[in-house]
Design goal:
- This protein is of the alpha/beta class.
- The chain contains 14 helices and 16 strands.
- Strands 1, 2, 3, 4, 5, 14, 15 and 16 form an eight-stranded mixed beta sheet that branches.
- The protein binds zinc ion (ZN).
- Zinc ion binds next to strand 6.
Length: 486
């Protein structure tokens, strides 16, 4: 792994998400990263002829400056708030099923293979490489139910330098006999062992406010696959460890919801099941949330839990469309998830594209594509998602869902430099991006350059792929991308 051994300075275009409604575009930005990978300072508009003076004023005359070319720009790394590492080999298969049949016929047979640690090592090496090269700098991984295989996944993530949460699935009922945990006690014991193991990989530094790169996460697969005593033990574990994140599925599919209600008759709702066991809190990541009731939306908001919107998977498994705009209007934290292999692409770019389509379908169904809204307070419900909104969900939104909004998701002094260098020049080799036309570009005004950059960002979000992701940085370290040398 090539790393930045000393401070490093980037000079070129930087696009920085600010809110659901805006991002900043700086065509001539100077951004300095310190020796531990945090952003030291940012100067927004530096004319080439003043570059040396600005560097001198910062005491950085000797520093290495990486100058970007026209058609290259820096954005924060993407955050995938929901994916399943052992399902990557299944991508693009099983789309004829809905959730419960898909689990039985496609997912569980593949996940069961991860009892073989050699298979796990080989597969996860390829999986993590692909995820990083696709521009995901922070990833919430579900492993299989196996302790050893999930330790290997954490080892690989750590060795490759990605920021991640890694959990093993808790599942002790309603799973096939060959792929189920023998008891709730075994499930909890393995979970505790995994938590200690992952925390030993990169211990928290006492003097650092920053969290370790790789962290454990509680992963009750979903309510159906966990007995009451398992959920109750996991709730106790969570309450003794407030920083421990929790990830699970919620309200993805109508058959799943009815079965859950049957299994937990005393719970007020599906969300109520997790709440009843102490698993719904400010660092819980709920994947899907396609069919929540009003009461569940209010409960999730009151607990400040986050939602991982996985539109590709929701289309592919015919689950439905999550009303993301409603959640955003409520002020619920929302990020994007690929949900491989319910989703058929490891790239958050694909989630962005399908989130856009999903929101457009919502707006068409309600006849609300224009400026009217059903309620005066509705800003996002049943409307298209704008480019700033999509960019925000993929970056800051995901960071907030993970509880990392002060550390990653955008660029600011003191935050970690988790970033992508994007290249939309023809040389990147992606035929779907009508790339840079650099005739006269250098003579454009700053305002015109900003307009070009906005256009390139939109083309990248909708037509880009890993060929356009030249470099991937996590905590200031160059960890992947098209030009990464292994
Ligand atoms: Zn999932």
């Amino acid at each position: 792994m090539e790393s930045i051994k000393k401070s490093c300075i980037f000079y070129g275009a930087v696009i920085n998400p600010k809110s659901l409604q805006s991002f900043s575009v700086s065509p001539q930005c100077l951004l300095a990263v310190d020796a531990i990978g945090n952003i030291d300072w940012i100067v927004d508009d530096v004319e080439p002829h003043t570059l040396q003076d600005v560097l001198a004023s910062k005491g950085c005359i000797e520093s290495e400056v990486i100058a970007l070319r026209e058609g290259e720009f820096i954005i924060p790394g993407f955050i995938d708030t929901h994916t399943h590492a052992p399902q990557v080999p299944n991508m693009g298969t099983g789309g004829q099923y809905e959730l419960l049949d898909w689990l039985e016929n496609v997912t569980f047979p593949t996940e069961a293979k991860f009892s073989d640690v050699n298979f796990a090592r080989e597969t996860y090496t390829s999986v993590v490489r692909r995820v990083i090269d696709s521009g995901t700098t922070t990833c919430c991984y579900y492993g299989s139910l196996h302790l050893e295989a999930t330790k290997i996944l954490a080892d690989i993530v750590y060795a490759f330098g990605q920021r991640a949460f890694v959990g093993k699935c808790n599942m002790n009922r309603h799973c096939p006999g060959h792929y189920i945990e023998p008891s709730f006690e075994d499930s909890v014991a393995d979970t505790q062992t995994l938590i200690s193991y992952i925390r030993s990989l990169s211990p928290q530094q006492d003097n650092s406010s920053q969290e370790p790169l790789v962290q454990p996460i509680l992963t009750p697969r979903f309510a159906i696959s966990c007995t009451d005593d398992l959920l109750s033990s996991l709730g106790n574990l969570a309450s003794s460890d407030p920083k421990l994140r929790i990830q699970t599925h919620i309200s993805e599919n109508k058959s799943e919801i009815s079965f859950t209600r049957e299994l937990f008759p005393s719970a007020s709702s599906y969300a109520g099941v997790y709440d009843m066991f102490g698993l719904l809190r400010q660092n819980t990541i709920l994947a899907h949330a396609v069919h929540l009731t009003e009461d569940e939306i209010d409960l999730i908001k009151s607990k400040d839990a986050g939602i991982s919107h996985c539109p590709t998977s929701n289309f592919n498994l015919s689950s439905g469309i999550a009303p993301v705009g409603v959640y955003l209007d409520k002020g619920i934290k929302v990020g994007l998830g690929t949900d491989v292999s319910g989703g058929f692409n490891v790239s958050i770019l694909n989630a962005i594209q399908n989130a856009s389509v999903a929101a457009k379908v919502c707006s068409l169904q309600t006849g609300n594509s224009g400026s009217e809204s059903s309620s005066m307070s509705a800003i996002y419900a049943n409307k298209q998602l704008s480019i700033p909104s999509l960019f925000y969900l993929a970056t800051i939104g995901g960071a907030a869902v993970c509880g990392l909004e002060n550390q990653v998701g955008s660029f600011a002094t003191g935050k970690s430099f988790d970033a992508l260098i994007v290249n939309v020049r023809d040389e990147a080799g992606n035929p779907t991006i009508w790339g840079l036309d650099d005739t006269n570009f250098t003579n454009l005004s700053i305002e015109d350059k900003k307009k070009h950059l906005e256009g390139w960002l939109e083309r990248f979000l909708f037509c880009g792929d890993d060929r356009n992701i030249e470099r991937v940085y996590v905590q200031g370290t160059f960890v992947g991308g098209r030009t990464f040398r292994r």
